[in-house]
Design brief:
Length: about 180
């Protein structure tokens, strides 16, 4: 299949580019526990064949090699136990949500992209105190949503009231996601 072929090609390329890091984002898409795919028919077989090829390739690495394989997921709980065996993905590093300082830094990345009615630093500090537990993606969403709300009201700049409305929308979306 296409998936196993791509995995073989990826690892062949990594061997020619040593030292390197192979990063597999959203590894749960391929590495979900076998027999729990939720798909009927052949789509599941392709995913499982891709996972099997990934396991084969990872077993073929010498521990003295200059290739590090890493993966990212929001769903470590659904990964196949064979992936988490020693010699494969045997270490887990949990990256939690940012603290207030981290949230302020993230706001400082996204806020300059829009016109603000208040000073950037003031907005970043105020919003960071109002968003405990928010991820970087949710913070980016608040900034985008705030800009959209201001635009809908024909404003020249985005104000704190627009961000407050944006937070209500984002929190509402998070609550829907948690229930579903």
């Amino acid at each position: 299949g296409v998936g196993p072929s791509r995995v073989r090609d990826l690892f062949a390329q990594a061997k020619t580019m040593q030292p390197c890091i192979v990063w597999i984002d959203e590894i749960d898409a391929v590495g979900r526990a076998r027999g729990k795919g939720g798909m009927a028919g052949g789509g599941n077989d392709e995913r499982e064949n891709t996972l099997n090829q990934l396991l084969v390739e990872m077993d073929g690495f010498a521990t003295t090699g200059n290739i590090v394989v890493m993966g990212g997921t929001n769903r470590a709980d659904v990964l196949d136990s064979a992936l988490l065996r020693p010699g494969r993905f045997d270490r887990t590093i949990e990256v939690g949500v940012p603290d207030i300082k981290g949230r302020a830094e993230i706001f400082r990345v996204y806020l300059p992209k829009i016109r603000l009615s208040d000073e950037l630093e003031t907005v970043a500090q105020k919003l960071s105190t109002l968003t405990p537990g928010f991820s970087g993606a949710e913070i980016a969403n608040i900034v985008n949503e705030g800009a959209l709300i201001a635009a809908r009201h024909n404003k020249d700049a985005v104000g704190l009231e627009d961000f407050h409305a944006a937070m209500d929308r984002v929190i509402g979306g998070l609550e829907k996601k948690a229930k579903g």
